[in-house]
């Protein structure tokens, strides 16, 4: 069985981590998310910069693997592995650059937002269709979206279920930069090399300062209230039917 997370070291200790499930559009499952968190914890200190990408050009990641969901409140167990991967991206001392091309949906958008920079091609297709699946998304992700693009655009993404291309995501502030598809690898590598060759204490201190500011928007009592809302939605009969329809569509049956 092929590794679902590939690690490759480059010059200046730039580490590339590749979500490697191309047959599933690099869909996220507990094993892949755990491997990502472990790699960042093990190698983040050594790395001058980290690049996070999906295998191939079709997708960064299609989001959480629907085949791993049951349509019950037990699906909220996925919060743990998604949260650990998101936290590992933020807590990695080295800056992390997301290379975004093709599909990027749901939990994959949360991973991308927890990277420090996001470089996309115009062919990006980004959405968070959780409501259509009967899901109230993780409060930490909703808060980060609001910090990034504002309340109105967050509502449009979550309730309007808009799909953004690279240029729209850039206009909304979700994507740092958009470059032609043929240039994305070179641009991501150039940014990583520049960060890796800059004074490490300054790069890491700047990232840590930004993380401190970002963490001030979430209160413990809000997390508790949001958790109850998610439990109620996750176990609803309507969600089970929505999930069955989506799984059937994905499988082509």
- Note the run of SSEs as H and E: EEHEEHEEHEEHHHEHHHH
Parts with pLDDT < 50 across at least 5 consecutive residues = none
Q: Find the CATH topology.
A: 2-enoyl-CoA Hydratase, Chain A, domain 1
The figure for the number of domains is: 1
Strand content: 5-15%
Number of helices: 10
Span of the ends, CA to CA: 26 Å
Helix content: 40-55%
Largest sheet: 6 strands, mixed
User: What is the top-level CATH class?
Assistant: Alpha Beta
Give a structural overview:
It is built from 10 helices and 9 strands. Strand 2, helix 1 and strand 3 form a beta-alpha-beta unit. The strands form 2 sheets. Strands 1-2-3-5-7-9 form a 6-stranded mixed beta sheet, sandwiched between helices. Strands 4-6-8 form a 3-stranded parallel beta sheet. The chain has 253 residues and is α/β, with parallel strands linked by helices. The protein is 47% helix and 15% strand.
């Amino acid at each position: 069985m092929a590794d679902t997370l590939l690690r490759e070291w480059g010059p200046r200790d730039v580490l590339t981590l590749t979500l490697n499930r191309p047959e599933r559009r690099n869909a996220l499952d507990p094993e892949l998310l755990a491997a990502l968190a472990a790699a960042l914890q093990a190698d983040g200190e050594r790395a001058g910069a980290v690049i996070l990408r999906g295998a191939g050009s079709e997708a960064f990641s299609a989001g959480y693997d629907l085949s791993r969901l049951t349509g019950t409140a037990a699906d909220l167990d996925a919060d743990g592995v998604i949260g650990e991967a998101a936290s590992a991206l933020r807590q990695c001392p080295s800056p992390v650059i997301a290379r975004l091309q093709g599909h990027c949906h749901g939990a994959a958008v949360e991973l991308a937002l927890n990277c420090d920079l996001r470089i996309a091609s115009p062919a990006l297709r980004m959405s968070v269709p959780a409501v259509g699946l009967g899901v109230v998304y993780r409060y930490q992700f909703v808060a980060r979206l609001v910090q990034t693009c504002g309340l109105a655009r967050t509502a449009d993404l979550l309730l309007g279920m808009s799909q953004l291309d690279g240029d729209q995501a850039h206009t909304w502030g979700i994507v740092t930069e958009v470059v032609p598809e043929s240039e994305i690898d070179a641009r991501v590598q150039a940014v990583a090399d520049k960060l890796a060759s800059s004074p490490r204490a300054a790069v890491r201190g700047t990232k840590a300062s930004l993380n401190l500011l970002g963490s001030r928007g979430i209160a413990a009592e809000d997390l508790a209230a949001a958790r109850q809302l998610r439990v109620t939605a996750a176990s609803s009969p309507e969600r089970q039917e929505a999930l069955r329809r989506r799984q059937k569509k994905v499988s082509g049956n």
